[in-house]
């Protein structure tokens, strides 16, 4: 086992790996690209909504949750696919659970935006 980096080198490596993960997911996952595009459209409306900083933070957070869920779901799917493509109940469970997480994050967006925007 190779020695682990610490301090600034570890932070730099972690940042590099994160950027690589974002780029790879962007290239490989149409759903991620679609969610980014829709998220940008939602973000573009924020200046016109005249909401408080806290409300804007919650609105942005709901969009970020979708991307986080999609990234984690993609990681689970890729790890399962590396193990093999044969049908297995645990593989199905892992992939379905990841998909359910994305679904909940997606449902959370209109609920959150609706509650904030429809409240005087």
Please, could you describe this protein's structure?
The protein has 120 residues and is an all-alpha fold. The chain has one domain (30-117): Helix Hairpins (Orthogonal Bundle), CATH 1.10.287.3610. Helix content is 85%, strand content 0%. It contains 4 helices and no strands. Helix 2 runs antiparallel to helix 3 and helix 3 (53-83) packs antiparallel against helix 4. The longest helix has 31 residues, at 53-83. The protein is globular. The relative contact order is 0.11.
Tags for this entry?
mainly alpha, 120 residues, globular, Helix Hairpins, 4 helices, single chain
CATH topology: Helix Hairpins
Mean pLDDT: 96
For the largest beta-sheet, the strand count, sense and barrel status come to: none
Q: How many beta-strand segments?
A: 0
Tally of alpha and pi helices: 4
Radius of gyration (CA) equals 18 Å
């Amino acid at each position: 086992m190779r020695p682990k980096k610490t301090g600034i080198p570890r932070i730099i490596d972690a940042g590099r790996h994160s950027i690589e993960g974002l780029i790879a997911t962007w290239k490989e996952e149409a759903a991620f690209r679609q969610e980014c595009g829709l998220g940008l459209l939602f973000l573009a409306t924020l200046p016109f909504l005249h909401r408080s900083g806290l409300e804007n933070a919650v609105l942005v957070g709901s969009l970020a949750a979708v991307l986080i869920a999609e990234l984690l779901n993609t990681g689970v799917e890729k790890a399962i696919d590396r193990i093999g493509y044969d049908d297995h109940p645990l593989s199905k469970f892992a992939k379905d659970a990841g998909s359910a997480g994305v679904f909940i994050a997606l449902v959370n967006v209109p609920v959150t935006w609706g509650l904030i925007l429809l409240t005087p």
